[in-house]
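Illustration: Bifunctional NAD(P)H-hydrate repair enzyme.
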Amino acid sequence: MIRAFGVADVRAAEAQVMAEVEPGTLMRRAADALAVVVLARAREQAARSVAVLVGPGDNGGDALYAAAHLAEHLSVVVVQVGTAVHEGGLRAVTDAGVPRLRVARTRRALTQPVRQALEDADVVVDGLLGIGGRPGLTGAMAGLADSIPASALVIAVDLPSGADPEGIAALGRTVRADETVTFGMAKPVHVLPATRSAVGRLTTVDIGVPEPEHAAVEQLTRADVAHLWPVPGPSDDKYSRGVLGVVAGSSRYPGAAVLAVTAAIEAGAGMVRYIGPDAAAQQVLVASPESVPGQGQVQAWVIGPGVPTDETTLDVRRQVEACRQALASDLPCVVDAGALDLVDGPREAPTLLTPHAGELARLLSRLEPGRVYHRSQIAAAPVEHTRRVAELTGATVLLKGATTLVVSPDTDRPLRCQSDAPAWLATAGAGDVLAGLVGTLVAAGLDPLDAGALAALIHGRAARRANPGGPVRALRVAQAIAETVASDLTPG
Ligand SMILES: NC(=O)C1=CN([C@@H]2O[C@H](COP(=O)(O)OP(=O)(O)OC[C@H]3O[C@@H](n4cnc5c(N)ncnc54)[C@H](OP(=O)(O)O)[C@@H]3O)[C@@H](O)[C@H]2O)[C@@H](O)CC1
Ligand SMILES: [K+]
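Result:
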């Protein structure tokens, strides 16, 4: 599991170590490790010239010490913003004879020598701002970020300058890194959807600071599958493993039912009962003869894929009624697509809502009368809006997207966030597959936060497995779930 820690906790952990070591030790460790990574990348790329951008805080200090090291091997120039920079770092570059250009903090337009230095750089090291940075670059920092040549390899120190260290605020003017070298532990900026795209590859280097107890964000990895996946024991039968009821599909959208049921069965449900119109039920049976049509006892529900609640045909009215009954029951529910329109307040039983950004906007607009939210607002500030829905509904909320976010209504629990899927997975039916997959996990007794994150992980990994490096249809993803789980349960 990758755990990311909020800025206050990171500072407290660092302060504890700093009290026990010589002053400057942590920064030296950080700078040494940074220089090792930059030098390795420069060698891989046969790069010769490095521009090191230096801001006013300790992030700039790290960059200055690293610049002094790098100058032993490469052609290095420092571009310093403002007059005040880390004193020790400044001495180190001066002693190493590194040329230094200065830019006035508020001046966005760059001088010719600075523009030239950037143009000549094969590698740009971004040491403008770290965890003390406020989101959004202005003045000279914005000018520098805009002038980094597209051809340069950009390595950010701790985080890409301008991005919100907590990963909450939308990306404004920011450095976009190819790689970020962070110290000790990941921070929310590195994993959350609002900022992650500016981080590039994440390299975490050890500087001897132990992880704090409470993570702000957790990201599951392959190694977590074995701990979390509900593996049956010898005394299990199909009922004890979890029977899932699926209310999905309609005459108009029978495919959603096929995909959700197939995914649930592939994920290893003890049994799947399908509730839907006859035409859809026939197709479900053809695709998954293991499924059982009609009502009966279940341990959990998936409701909503392919159920267009705004239609008034008889089969949709029946589906909506089945969704309402599931919501009114005391059983865990995964609420997807059309059924999100039926959610109004908290339920007693575990509940997982699985909207995409557009559906979350619609749900929030309905839950907060008088306010209208748009998809773009959700995409710009996903954590804030997903938290709000979790608070208003008392449900765990999984926001689907390139990075999937899972937020518990219990604010003490870390956010979960997964970005395992290839971009190819942005395809029709992928959400129906996820709904069936997560339903099986909830029916097996996983709590919605674990189930949501684990399903997102396996969903992404199954998509990669189904057709590595190329387009992938949702049905293939569903059909790749069983072997993905098997492979992830196998050590090694
Ligand atoms: N702590 C440790 O043990 C270790 C820490 N380490 C390193 O220290 C980094 C944190 O350093 P830090 O606290 O000095 O903050 P940092 O991000 O460099 O800059 C803050 C300065 O920027 C300014 N400023 C802020 N926003 C701005 C904006 N948008 N636009 C313009 N200016 C802005 C703000 O000034 P203000 O404008 O508020 O007067 C302030 O002067 C951390 O990320 C890691 O790299 C490592 O060495 C390992 C050990
Ligand atoms: K930085």
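Reading the tokens back as a structure: The chain has two domains: 2-218, 222-489.
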